[in-house]
Design brief:
Layout (H helix, E strand, L loop, with lengths): L1 H27 L19 E3 L2 E4 L5 E4 L2 E4 L3 E6 L3 E4 L6 E4 L4 E5 L6 E5 L10 E4 L10 E2 L6 E2 L9 E9 L14 E4 L6 E8 L6 E4 L5 E7 L6 E4 L5 E8 L9 E3 L15 E8 L9 E5 L5 E18 L1 H4 L7 E18 L5 E2 L5 E3 L24
Parallel strand pairs: 1-4, 2-5, 3-6, 4-7, 5-8, 6-9, 7-10, 8-13, 9-13, 10-14, 13-15, 14-16, 15-17, 16-18, 17-19, 18-20, 19-21, 20-22, 21-23, 22-23, 23-24, 24-26
Antiparallel strand pairs: 11-12, 24-25
Length: about 375
């Protein structure tokens, strides 16, 4: 009897383990992401406003961005690895994340997300615009120069989503005589937002521009853009690592153009980013070629481990408020390697008089910049183009 009971118990125990294993396997099976939004996705006419819930795209489809796509407050757009979105309508086609909205771009090193233009020419479509609630020095809030969305506020930790392994190509369409889209425009974006492994390539304006905010970045490539590769203004103060920029042979302005506030150079919060591991490759070294960095109208910065190659001027520093920050620790650039740079630094005060600003930098012939000196870093392999 005892033997029979033991046998029966053993059978029951094994059955429960098998059922449990099946149950666990079922729970681990991937399930399709549920779309909780009533937004209707048309791959041939991808435009409109996502007003609520979550929209998840299908990486097996190619989306034709025929107009503006806005992710509104409380809504989310999820873009899986390998997704391609093609802008087809100049300034009418762009993606904008409003305050309170979120975007999740989940690319990988072998399968990045690509936002590109139909005709593969600079300025073929708008670009990606994100508006957050972090502080700016243009006022308590402002309206973005493109997309006409509110940005700025008091939430330094504001979260607009996560972007990893994204390539933005052929953006920067002309909006008006005074306004032009960048590849990626960050308006008052907070440091709760993740931006890593992003390339801005072949745009007609800046690669990436920060309009205030506190957002941090890592592993950013800005290449072949027709204006500045990196640009900041309005009190941006993020922490950043591994930036690599390379200009076209025939066109391009500055590697970095950096401002605080052109109307009030001492407006707070003052632009004050930290950047470590930076390489800027210019398009030539003659007296009239652009600057590797132009720092002006009161910006601060702390930049370390820098390689500058093929520039007419390394550091061009303007305006009293910017120059006054040199030697105080508020504006300093350390461990710089110059390669084929004619003039290492030059300065000009508000009156237009020349000023010696050479104290802004220290040199180090062994600086590695973004990781590989003047060559493309190893972390760019597999997901970038044109380097």
């Amino acid at each position: 009897m005892k033997k029979t009971v033991k046998s029966l118990f053993g059978i029951l125990l094994m059955s429960s383990l098998v059922l449990g294993a099946v149950s666990c396997d079922d729970n681990e099976d991937p399930k399709p992401t549920e779309q909780t939004s009533d937004f209707k996705v048309d791959v041939n006419k991808f435009e409109g406003t996502i007003t609520k819930g979550t929209v998840t795209l299908d990486a097996s489809q190619e989306y034709q961005l025929t107009g503006k796509l806005v992710i509104a407050n409380g809504a989310k757009l999820v873009v899986p690895a390998g997704t391609v979105i093609v802008g087809t309508g100049g300034t009418s086609s762009y993606i904008a994340v409003a305050q309170g909205g979120k975007i999740e771009i989940n690319g990988t090193s072998s399968n990045p997300v690509v936002l590109t233009g139909k005709d593969k020419t600079p300025g073929n479509w708008g670009g990606l615009v994100i508006c957050g609630k972090a502080p700016i020095n243009k006022g308590a809030s402002a309206t973005s120069e493109v997309a006409d969305l509110t940005y700025g506020g008091s939430d330094a930790a504001d979260n607009s989503g996560s972007i990893k392994y994204l390539r933005v190509e052929y953006a920067g369409a002309l909006f008006s005589a005074d306004k032009e889209f960048n590849g990626l425009s960050l308006f008052g974006v907070g440091n709760g937002t993740t931006i890593e492994y992003v390339q801005l390539h072949n745009g007609s304006d800046d690669g990436i521009e920060f309009f205030g905010g506190t957002v941090n970045t890592k592993y950013i490539v800005s290449s072949n853009n027709e204006d500045d590769q990196f640009d900041w203004t309005e009190g941006w103060s993020g922490n950043n690592e591994f930036w690599y920029a390379k200009e076209r042979n025939d066109m391009g302005n500055r590697g970095i153009e950096a401002d605080n506030n052109s109307n009030d150079n001492l407006a707070t919060p003052i632009s004050n980013p930290t950047i470590k591991n930076l390489t800027l490759i210019g398009r030539g070294a003659t007296g009239e070629e652009p600057d590797a960095m132009k720092l002006r109208v009161g910006t601060y910065a702390n930049i370390d481990n820098v390689v500058l190659s093929n520039w007419g001027t390394g550091f061009n520093i303007e305006h009293d408020a910017t120059i006054a920050a040199i030697g105080t620790g508020k504006l300093k650039i350390t461990n710089v390697k110059f390669d084929n740079v004619i003039t290492k630094s030059k300065g000009k005060d508000n009156a237009g008089a020349s000023v010696d600003v050479s104290a802004v930098f220290t040199e180090n012939a062994d600086a590695t910049g973004a990781g590989n000196g003047t060559a493309a870093p190893t972390w760019t392999q597999g997901w970038t183009v044109g380097l």
